[in-house]
Amino acid sequence: MGACTKLAELVHSTDGYPFRLPDDLRAFIASDQALGAWVAERDGKVIGHVALHARTTPAVMTMASVALGLPTHRLGVVSTHTAAIALYERCGWTRIGLVPFPVGDGTAVDEFVYVGPPD
For 78-92, how does the pLDDT look when each residue is reduced to its tens digit (9 = 90+)? Predict the structure, then answer.
């Protein structure tokens, strides 16, 4: 968990994720709201972490539901940002839209909506 915490701090400083660095990074990384989470290792060293979440803003869930023809309870949500976007696109994911995501200070950030490659 310590390695994941350090990695989260590094990602925040270089890629801006998470938008607001939580006080309790351990609780953020090991969220009980996640459907699943995975850690990537190379030579015994943690080099990445990803978590799949069931929900985000209703507008994002609706857009993905319409594009896929699936009910929202069958969908999951993954993080955005430059490195993640490049990975998704290299792996065949398709961007279907963009939805502003409101943050607590009255501003909004763009949340890209992707669908995974066909089975």
Answer: 675 677 788 888 888
